[in-house]
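Field guide to reading this record: the first block holds the primary sequence, the second block holds the structure written as discrete tokens, and the final block holds curator observations. Each block starts with its own label. This record concerns M20/M25/M40 family metallo-hydrolase, catalogued under organism Microbacterium invictum.

BLOCK 1 — SEQUENCE
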Amino acid sequence: MLFRTDAAASASAEALRAHADDQLSQYRHELAHLVGIDSGSYSPDGVDAVGAWCAARLAAAGFAVETPPTPVVDGRRFGRVVVGRRLGTGTRRILLFAHMDTVFADGTAALRPYREVGGRAYGPGVSDDKGGLLAGIHAADVLDRIGYAGYGELILAFTPDEEVGAPASGELLRAAATGVDAALCLECARENGDVVVARKGVADVHVDVSGRAAHAGVEPERGADAAVEAARLLLDAHALACDGDVTVNIGVVAAGERPNIVPAVATLRGEVRAWTAAALERTLHALERRVEATTVPGVGATFRREALCPPLEATDTAVLFQAARAVAADGGWPLGGAATGGVSDANFIAALGVPVLDGLGPIGGDDHSPTEWLDLASVPERVALLAGLVVRIAEG
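BLOCK 2 — STRUCTURE
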């Protein structure tokens, strides 16, 4: 299509919403197809089936599509990343990103097929994140329909492993995000329609405790009880939590071999979450110091951090949140912002210094459960919001 130089003037809230409404039937048909594909994070063939559909859909919409393979991680293969790029007439580069994987095992799509009841769609991954992924594609379609290409480059990136922390796709997504002017995360909106303006950062922690075994009946005094130290560590770790600002959860505790042996080893595995990078680092440092200062004679312990995900702080989202609220106000749609303890790929993009806004997909809920749902009535509004936000960012 030949884009008009004054196309931004045609991007009224009413026009965007009208085009999004026109596309709803197609959206529902495509959503049913995607939800019908099992695409658990550890099912690369299923993820690649979703990716092949996305790649073809983007190519048909005028995007140049790349599907770079992801690296093998700890002997495990993951699906490919899909990146679509469409050049415009402006200067600002805008990234929309979502994930193709779900938390559900193969066979779930057949066990719980896509269905619509009472204005809601149900099925595995319907809101997290196939509904959001599809909203990004339809927002690009709306921009095409109104003849708007005032951005410098519109990039849509879909990843295969967000649900397990993006071990394979993280670097590829960060490469796609490097140098963009704004990034819009297509995770589903909160149940009240709020976008996500902050997410906690999280670090996994692993503690190994080493003591000395002894016969618990004959000579227990010769033992050094690793289980006692682990129990004290557990209580002290949870004491580091701070009124919801910082949470500490030791979710796995294991110690000993038999009831009649003083435990020689123990293991604790958990996580620390915090709203700011400073609070996360401060808590991790305090926990490490406590692990080093063991309290049971003869017992030692080691601490290591694993899988650190930085927080998405409110300062990372403030400018785009105000822009989104302005777009919503033009359309007469209320738009609030929420903070959540869960993480997404948006956390990693924000760490690059890129302005990010999260939760821009349609309204949904009960993620990761058999009752996961998506509000179909919210789809046109969210598609229009996305398209309008792209225009507002591109126009500065």
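BLOCK 3 — OBSERVATIONS
Residues 7-199+311-395 form a domain with the Aminopeptidase fold (CATH 3.40.630.10).
The chain has a mean pLDDT of 95.
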